[in-house]
Amino acid sequence: MERFSERERTRIALIWGLGLFLLYTLVIAPFFAAQRTAAEAERAAAEAFLARVELHERTLIAEPQTEQKLRARQAFLLHALPDEEEQGSFIRTVERLARQNNVVLAHFAPQPPVHMEEIVVRSIEIKMRGSYFDLLSFLHAVQEAEPGIRFGDFSVTADGDALDIAVRMETATSVMKKKQE
User: Fold this and answer.
1) What's the per-residue H, E or C state across the chain?
2) More confident position, 141 or 63
3) Structural domain tally of the chain?
4) Which of 98, 154, 164, 180 has the lowest CB atom count within 10 Å?
């Protein structure tokens, strides 16, 4: 540094200062700003969740019927789950046929059974994905394997070579048959 003049040393110091300023401005400051923004978003989400929990707690304390309503809703949802002998066996059959026909099952949504005099109708919404011929073979196999099946609402969307299908399937069983077993 002794061979540089005072002017050159000042120029080098200014270049270093400018370089450090640009490094901070272009690299370090945006990184810290992104970290701060992410932390603020996480804090806001936690505060919103806490507010919902406090609102739920206040609602339960203020209105005693709310807990009964929640229990009734829970019972309804539990009632909608398939029973092991009835809809559960149907779901296992559908899963087996889907594997055999190269169909990917994306979603099952069992519905509560509907009782009509001597018949119990159980419906389930199934979303699946596969090629046209695989899906067609699968639907034929389900129809042949399960007696008393009816296909309800269909929704078909194409994505390249694959099709996405949402279908409601209904199975009907006799109440008399159920009582005899």
Assistant:
1) CCCCCHHHHHHHHHHHHHHHHHHHHHHHHHHHHHHHHHHHHHHHHHHHHHHHHHHHHHHHHHCCHHHHHHHHHHHHHHHHCCCCCCHHHHHHHHHHHHHHCCCEEEEEEECCCEEECCEEEEEEEEEEEECHHHHHHHHHHHHHHCCCEEEEEEEEEEECCEEEEEEEEEEEEEHHHHHHC
2) 141
3) 2
4) 180
pLDDT at 15: 96
Phi and psi torsions of 162, nearest 5°: -100, 155
Q: Is residue 69 part of a domain?
A: no
Adjacent-strand bridge partners of 116? 119
Same domain, 100 and 153: yes
Pair 128, 57 in one domain: no
Full residue range of the structural domain in which residue 118 is found: 83-180
Q: Are 77 and 92 in contact (CB under 8 A)?
A: no
Q: How far apart are CA 53 and CA 59, in angstroms?
A: 10
Q: How far is CA 110 from CA 97, 99, 171, in A?
A: 18, 20, 11
